[in-house]
Write a structure and sequence with these properties.
This protein is mainly alpha-helical. It has 2 domains: 1-27 and 148-171, no CATH class; 29-59 and 66-141, no CATH class. The chain is 50% helix and 9% strand. The chain has 6 helices and 2 strands; from the N terminus they run ααααααββ. A two-stranded antiparallel sheet has the order 1-2. α2 runs antiparallel to α6 and α4 packs parallel to α6. The mean pLDDT is 88.
Amino acid sequence: MLEITAVDGSPLAPESVQMLEYLKNRVNELAASGICERIRAAAADLENAVAGVSAAESRLRPIAGKWNIAETVDHISQTQIRGTEELRHLLSGRRPPLPPVYEALRSGAGEWASWDTLVSELKDANRAMIELLESAPNQAEFANAPTVRTVVVALRKLEDGSTAPQLFFAD
C-alpha cells in the first residue's frame, strides 16, 4: 500500500494520521441507519441555525477574505449533492466516475442567489442524502466494496502553536 502524503508532498501530521485511524475503526462500528441518524441530526441542527439568519446577515463578511454565511450554506449544499451522488454509485457497487468532492466546492450561488433559495437548496440537498441513506442496506460487506477518492482536510497544530489545515487524498 502506498504511503499517503499531503497534497504539498509533506508527511501526514499526527492529527491527519489520527483522523484516518478513527475513520478506519469507525467504518465497522456504525451501520447505515446510525450514519443516517447522525446526518439527520446534524442537518436539523444546521437548518435550525440558518433559520435564525436574515438575508442581510447571510451576506456579512466579518473576516476579510473568508466566506460569509451564504457562501458556506452554498458549499454545504453542493457538497451534500455531490456526496449523495457518490454514495448512490457506491451503493450500486461501483466507484463514482467523477473527480472527488473538493474542499472548497461552491456553485457561486452564494454570491447572487436569494437567501431563501440557498436555504431551500440546503434542505433539499440534506433531504436527498437522508432519503438515500434510509434506502441503504443497514449492513454491507466492505472488504471488496468500491471506494471513492476523497479530499480530506485535517486541522493540525503547527510548531508555533497555531493551527492550519492539511489536505490529502484518501480512498
